[in-house]
TrEMBL record:
It is found in: Secreted. This is Glycoprotein hormone beta-5. One of its GO terms (cellular component) is extracellular space. GO terms for molecular function: hormone activity. Functions as a heterodimeric glycoprotein hormone with GPHA2 able to bind and activate the thyroid-stimulating hormone receptor (TSHR), leading to increased cAMP production. Plays a central role in controlling thyroid cell metabolism. Heterodimer with GPHA2; this heterodimer interacts with thyroid-stimulating hormone receptor (TSHR), and hence stimulates cAMP production. Transmembrane segments: none annotated. SUPFAM superfamilies: Cystine-knot cytokines. Its main location: secreted. Keywords: Disulfide bond, Glycoprotein, Hormone, Secreted, Signal. Residues 84-177 form the Glycoprotein hormone subunit beta domain. It comes from Cynoglossus semilaevis (Tongue sole).
Length: 179
C-alpha cells in the first residue's frame, strides 16, 4: 500500500489541523505520527520538524497600538482632568527687597475642590460653598538668599506641603480673593 501526502512534503510547517493526515490511493487515512497539533514533532522524516511563529492578525495589531496611544494620552492629560487636592512639586523665585532672587523647588498644594453658589431669597441673596486646595500639614523651611545688602536678613521662610486638603480659604497661609 503506497501513501501519498495531501500536502507537499516540507521540513517546517505551520500549525494547522489539515496537515497531519496522509491519504493512500484507496482513500484510507494514516496519521503522520505527530505527538500533538501544537508541537508537530513528527515521526515521519521530512514532514513537520518544527513550528513557525505566526503574527497576530492586522486588526488585532491596530487595536493594540490604538489602546497604547489612548493610555499614553491619558497619562499626559491626567493633571488637566484631575479633580481633588494633592501635594505636587512646585518651583518659584524667592525674592525680597535688598536681595537677589533664588529659585526654590518645594512641595505645594495643587488641585480643584468642589465649590458652588446658589441664589436665596433673603440677604445676602447668595449661599456660597467655596473650598480651596490648601495645606493641612506643613514643614517650615528656610533658604538663604544671595547678594543681600548688609542691613537685610538673607533668610527666606516658606512652607513645604506634607499633606493637602480642600478647606475654606484662610488668609493666615493663603491669598484669598473674593469675587
Amino acid at each position: 500500500m503506497q501513501f501519498q501526502n495531501i500536502l507537499p512534503k516540507r521540513r517546517n510547517c505551520a500549525v494547522s489541523s489539515d496537515i497531519s493526515p496522509l491519504v493512500n490511493t484507496a482513500g484510507e487515512m494514516k496519521e503522520t505520527g505527530c505527538i500533538n497539533k501544537l508541537h508537530r514533532r513528527c515521526l515521519i522524516p521530512n514532514y513537520c520538524t518544527s513550528m513557525h511563529f505566526q503574527l497576530p492578525p492586522l486588526p488585532f495589531l491596530i487595536l493594540l497600538v490604538a489602546k497604547v496611544a489612548v493610555i499614553c494620552s491619558a497619562v499626559s492629560t491626567t493633571l488637566h482632568g484631575f479633580r481633588g487636592c494633592a501635594v505636587r512639586e512646585f518651583s518659584f523665585v524667592a525674592q525680597k527687597p535688598g536681595c537677589k532672587g533664588l529659585r526654590i523647588t518645594t512641595e505645594a498644594c495643587w488641585g480643584r475642590c468642589h465649590t458652588w453658589e446658589k441664589p436665596v431669597p433673603e440677604p445676602p441673596y447668595i449661599q456660597r460653598h467655596h473650598r480651596v486646595c490648601t495645606y493641612s500639614r506643613i514643614r517650615h523651611m528656610t533658604a538663604r538668599l544671595p547678594g543681600c545688602q548688609p542691613n537685610i536678613s538673607s533668610l527666606y521662610h516658606y512652607p513645604m506641603a506634607l499633606h493637602c486638603h480642600c478647606a475654606i480659604c484662610s488668609t493666615q497661609d493663603t491669598e484669598c480673593e473674593t469675587f
